[in-house]
Write a structure and sequence with these properties.
alpha/beta, six-stranded mixed sheet, 12 strands, ADH-like_N, oxidoreductase, oxidoreductase activity
């Protein structure tokens, strides 16, 4: 069975313990995979063995075989291969729900997208382009700008993360924007809200600013939330603005939203069949190289989707040099060598002493015996 696995920022957050109620270790990561059905449970309808499908399990997508409830499994169109299936399903479903179910994107609207170079960011831009006259402002690190331009990414105004991008947006559109899609949290929430026009909508769908180091940091999480201003319902009422939040994982697995998500997936597949969207693939990695793939995502260096392909051979690893002896080993070795040296010297001294004793023995030992015999003979005579 040929399987492809989509790597998502959610995997990174779970690995670092930055999600609520993670499973007990050991467990298998992964929320998105594409392959073929090998077995069907009793009472399951609408699927057959051998069907090409994509699945969004709660975990275990990195396993060789994955048992997934039918409500989280979707048949792939004939045109959709496993590589594109793993690249398109979660990212474009999130983007579709954000734009068309929550933000109500329509002709002539303006849109600010954070992390526009990532998998979801690129999906949002492509889906936004299916609506006429939409203006897209995209924010990402400066290092990605050239690559996005080279890929002809349809972003109208590319802005640098960490810069005063609010002022840049105001120069183009003094009134602000209609929609802000924020996956960062922290101080970006305040900037985004301040940029909204009347009737504007701000939607938070992630908190990647929490992920800073290699492990969960209480201080990173606390700082992100402390930087967010409080917005009262009265203020929303007076300013004619909307605040929303979206979490696909919670909607599917804790809030029984599988039917809602299925409709969004079907709409995404239909747009793919019509040629209106095409997933942007950043890179494909062997499963054994997942650590490097996750590090690339952690460092925010990917443009588009990162895929794990178990059929690929892992990259050759550099030969590991022999490890030098530790200080304790060297100290122990030195002590043992010193002890051996002292014992050897002691043995040599003993040998020398024996030799000296032999030399100092009286030479009359034999003669005295002879004298004794001689005197004995004289006496006897």
């Amino acid at each position: 069975m040929y399987i492809c696995i989509g790597l998502n920022f959610q995997d990174l957050m779970v690995r670092q313990g930055a999600v609520d109620s993670p499973p007990k270790c050991p467990f298998i990561l992964g929320f998105e995979c594409a392959g073929e059905i090998e077995q069907i449970g009793e009472g399951v309808e609408g699927f057959a063995i051998g069907d090409k499908v994509v699945a969004l399990p709660e975990y275990r997508a990195w396993a060789e075989l994955v048992a997934v409830p039918a409500k989280y499994v979707y048949k792939c169109p004939d045109e959709l291969g496993p590589l594109d299936a793993a690249a398109i399903t979660m990212n474009y479903t999130v983007a579709y729900i954000l734009l068309f179910e929550l933000a109500g994107l329509s002709k002539g609207k303006s849109l600010l997208v954070h992390s526009v170079g990532g998998g979801v960011g690129q999906a949002i831009v492509q889906l936004a382009r299916t609506v006429p006259d939409v203006v897209v402002f995209g924010v990402c690190s400066k290092a990605k700008h050239e690559a996005l331009k080279a890929n002809n990414s349809p972003i109208d105004h590319l802005l640098e993360r960490g810069s005063d991008y609010s002022s840049e947006i105001r120069k183009v559109q003094p009134d602000g924007v209609d929609i802000v899609l924020d996956c960062l949290c922290g101080e970006e929430c305040n900037r985004g809200y301040s940029l909204l026009k009347p009737m504007g909508k701000y939607i938070l769908y992630g908190s990647s600013n929490v992920v800073t180091g290699e492990t969960k940091s209480f201080f990173s999480a606390a700082r992100s939330w402390w930087q967010v201003d409080k917005v009262s319902p009265i203020k929303l009422f007076e300013e004619n603005r909307t605040l929303s939040g979206f979490n696909l994982r919670r909607l599917m697995y804790q809030q029984d939203g599988s039917d809602f998500v299925r409709k969004a997936v079907e709409n995404v597949f239909a747009l793919y069949k019509e040629g209106k969207i095409k997933p942007v693939l950043d890179s494909t990695w062997a499963l054994e190289d997942v650590a490097e793939a996750m590090q690339k995502m952690h460092d925010r260096k990917n443009i588009g989707k990162i895929i794990l392909d178990p059929s690929l051979e892992p990259k050759p690893k550099p030969a590991t040099p022999a490890k030098g002896k530790s200080k304790e080993d060297k100290k122990k070795q030195s002590s043992e060598e010193k002890k051996d040296s002292e014992e050897k010297k002691e043995d040599e001294k003993k040998e020398e002493k024996k030799e000296e004793e032999k030399k100092e023995e009286p030479a009359t030992n034999g003669d005295s015996a002879g004298d004794s015999d001689s005197k004995g003979k004289e006496n006897s005579s």
